[in-house]
Design goal:
Blueprint: E1 3-4, E2 8-12, H1 18-32, E3 38-42, H2 43-47, H3 49-65, H4 72-80, H5 88-95, H6 98-108, E4 112-115, E5 132-136, E6 153-156, H7 159-168, E7 176-178, H8 185-193, E8 208-212, H9 219-232, E9 236-240, H10 245-254, E10 261-264, H11 270-275, E11 279-281, H12 286-294, E12 299-302, H13 308-318, E13 322-325, H14 328-340, H15 342-353, H16 360-374, E14 381-382
Parallel strand pairs: 1-14, 2-3, 2-4, 4-5, 5-6, 6-7, 8-9, 8-11, 9-10, 11-12, 12-13
């Protein structure tokens, strides 16, 4: 009997790095199992590059406009959260890339289509060779855009999301698996090795605050936090500016005489930095939150944006593994209290220890390959 490797198509989007990181994590685990016919496609970018750039800028602008009281992204999120998955809004969004999707499927002829972004999904009925479709939900909150007819299986972060799907949508029995959200394998590797953090009294030993500059909507907010921390605490502060070169240059110049404050640009080994920190100030993206949980790194979130980030933040706060602040002064007070009370760190890390299911990417990939092997055509077997 002839054998062949399965072909895998992963659909992603460039709105933030999270969806692409999930796709890359899945790619890694497919390659680890010698499945090399894997293609990752940013459908919106391929189908409508101009519109993709416009939507991306609109999303970025919404993060700033929300603080001025014009939170159009948050409004749209909550207005459509419980809408009919087969209704006109979701059909309209999927229609943007429908033609390009079917053309890509026709060329690549995948055995499995994995969705890591909540629109652009095609059902197996629309594929001329009946490919299986899978969806990886990359948030800790549920939105109707993630739900699509005929999806074979969903992979979700928590039992709460699974219960919500089972309650609100028919025919979900056996279709939802709680795996966690896939992140880069380095986080799992270092998460196993990294020691439990102890925040100690006296000096700056054990007091390492990691700040992600992207968590702030203005330069003033960031400098205000640094000023308050330097005035209140004997601690070391590391600020990751990412690709914001202008911010990096200004901060480096402004705090040249403060050796306890260090500034970094974009770094690949963020997992090493997180593993040696006492806590992190960050946005409430599903991927970053998952990475912090794996490393048992206490989380602080400033004024989360409306939509999935706010819902993610509230979920983590309600489960006792993150703190939310509404302004910079409140954030500084929360950090001060945390660093002065080691018992808080121990409590948070204890809750984080049982919060994830293991290497989510590996669990998902193995389950998909098991599904494909089970339904293989007897005339064309899979070599897994």
């Amino acid at each position: 009997m002839p054998t062949r490797h399965p072909r895998i198509l992963i659909l992603t989007a460039g709105f933030g790095d999270g969806h692409q990181q999930v796709s890359s994590a899945l790619l890694h685990y497919f390659h680890m199992l010698q499945v090399n016919q894997v293609q990752i496609i940013d459908l919106m970018k391929v189908a409508h590059p101009v519109l993709n750039s416009f939507f991306s800028k609109m999303y970025q602008m919404s993060l700033f406009s929300s603080h001025l009281g014009f939170d159009y992204y948050g409004w749209s999120y909550y207005m459509t959260r419980d809408s009919n998955p087969s209704g006109p809004v979701n059909r309209y969004l999927n229609g943007f890339v429908r033609r390009e999707m079917l053309e890509t499927i026709g060329r690549f002829r995948p055995d499995a289509i994995i969705n890591t972004f909540p629109f652009g999904v095609v059902s197996h009925r629309e594929c001329d060779h009946n490919a299986r479709t899978f969806t990886v939900i990359t948030d800790y909150a549920l939105h109707s855009r993630w739900i699509h007819p005929d999806t074979h299986k969903y992979y979700v972060a928590t039992n709460d999301i699974k219960d919500l799907m089972m309650k609100n949508y028919v025919c979900m029995a056996g279709k939802v698996s709680v795996t966690g959200i896939p992140v880069r394998p380095q986080f799992y590797n270092i998460g196993v090795k990294s020691p439990i953090r102890k925040v100690t009294y006296g000096g700056s030993e054990g007091k390492q605050i990691l700040i992600m500059a992207g968590a702030f909507t203005s330069f003033q907010q960031l400098t205000e936090l640094i000023y308050l921390l330097l005035g209140q605490q004997s601690c070391e502060i590391t600020v990751v500016c990412g690709r914001k070169q202008h911010t990096f240059d200004k901060l480096t110049s402004l705090y040249a005489e403060h050796p306890q404050v260090k500034f970094l640009g974009y770094i690949e080994n963020i997992h090493d930095l997180m593993a040696t920190s006492s806590c992190i100030v960050t946005k409430a993206g599903g991927i970053t939150l998952t990475e912090a949980v794996i490393l048992k790194l206490p989380i602080f979130i400033l004024s989360p944006f409306g939509g999935q980030e706010r819902e993610n933040a509230l979920y983590f706060k309600n489960n006792g593994i993150a703190q939310i602040s509404s302004n910079v002064r409140q954030l500084a007070e929360q950090l001060q209290l945390f660093l002065e009370a080691p018992v808080l760190s121990d409590r948070i890390q204890g809750k984080m220890a049982g919060f994830h299911q293991g290497a989510a990417g590996e669990l998902i990939v193995k389950d998909i390959l098991s599904t494909l092997q089970y339904r293989q055509d007897p005339s064309s077997g899979y070599e897994l």
